Amino acid sequence: MKLISISNLTKNYHTKTKEIEAIDNISFDINDNEIVSIIGPSGCGKSTILNILTNIDKPSSGSIEKKDNLKIGYMMQNDCLLPWLTVFENATLGLKLKSIKNKENIDYVNSLLEKYGLKEFANEYPRNLSGGMRQRLALIRTLAIKPDILFLDEPFSKLDYTTRLSISDDVFKIIRELNISAILITHDIKEALMLSDRIIVLSKRPAIIKDIITLEYNDTLPSEKERTNNYEEITNSIWELINK
Ligand code: ADP
Ligand code: MG
């Protein structure tokens, strides 16, 4: 079933001095139970697509259809943790904003904090967490509202390589266990290959779709794929596609 359908999406920004064409006539769908990566060079319009899908930004033209009552969990490019709130308060912020901070949802957040090793830090502040822990906390906050689809904007880009792999595994497991969908934005081709079921390849700005690559659906963890696959050839061909 389709969760999101984007048709002929175009976005231009008007600044004082010039007009920036960010997105040029993009169309694609997102179905249930699939992880779709969007890859493309820095500044090509990837974050803009998620901002338009979450109504933070408006399209210049085109249409967007979403399944009725679709709940989107958006983890933005910067982790957006509030430094003056504790780990627990950050984790439950979305619940508070939506006025659904009830016992059931709080229990769920506590179980996620426990599962991802943050329970004992519940009363600490974000500054006392490592990069990986901050990222886990941002993810828990996003999951707290029980979304149907996760929007993950370069969630691993600031992490070191090992932390990145272990969090990729966690994220992949969560998405599969909850049977939800995700849009993962990345500029790392290998990350897209390890984590997704489909890859949308964008060009330099203004972004057009260069290709949509469908991978074999599987439940193999990213770290396992990293160990066993040689992605060199496909990585090179995608690289050429993006940069040509
Ligand atoms: P990406 O996420 O692919 O790195 P973005 O979607 O953030 O790229 O931005 C795409 C282009 O649009 C960039 O050139 C950026 O400078 C420009 N842009 C993004 N937001 C705005 C804005 N609010 N006003 C003007 N230009 C913007
Ligand atoms: Mg971005």
Structure description:
With about 240 residues, the protein is of the alpha/beta class. It has a domain at about 1-65 and about 190-244: 3-Layer(aba) Sandwich (Rossmann fold), CATH 3.40.50.300. It contains nine helices and nine strands. The strands form two sheets. A six-stranded mixed sheet has the order 5-6-7-3-8-9, with helices on both faces. The longest helix has 17 residues, at about 160-175. The protein is globular. It starts with a strand and ends with a helix. The mean pLDDT is about 95. Bound molecules: adenosine-5'-diphosphate and magnesium ion. The site of magnesium ion has 4 residues, from α1.
The radius of gyration over CA amounts to 18 Å
The hetero molecules present are: adenosine-5'-diphosphate, magnesium ion
CATH class category of one domain: Alpha Beta
Terminus-to-terminus distance: 34 Å
Overall number of strands: 9
Topology as H/E string?
EEEHEEHHHHEHEHEEHH
Indicate the mean pLDDT.
Answer: 94
How helical, in percent, are the residues? 25-40%
Question: Largest sheet, order of strands side by side?
Answer: 5-6-7-3-8-9
Fold topology:
Layout: E1 2-14, E2 19-31, E3 35-39, H1 46-53, E4 61-66, E5 72-75, H2 87-91, H3 93-97, H4 103-115, H5 131-143, E6 149-153, H6 161-177, E7 181-186, H7 189-195, E8 198-202, E9 209-214, H8 222-228, H9 232-243
Parallel strand pairs: 3-7, 3-8, 5-6, 6-7
Antiparallel strand pairs: 1-2, 1-4, 8-9
Bound molecules: adenosine-5'-diphosphate and magnesium ion (MG).
Adenosine-5'-diphosphate binds next to strand 2 and helix 1.
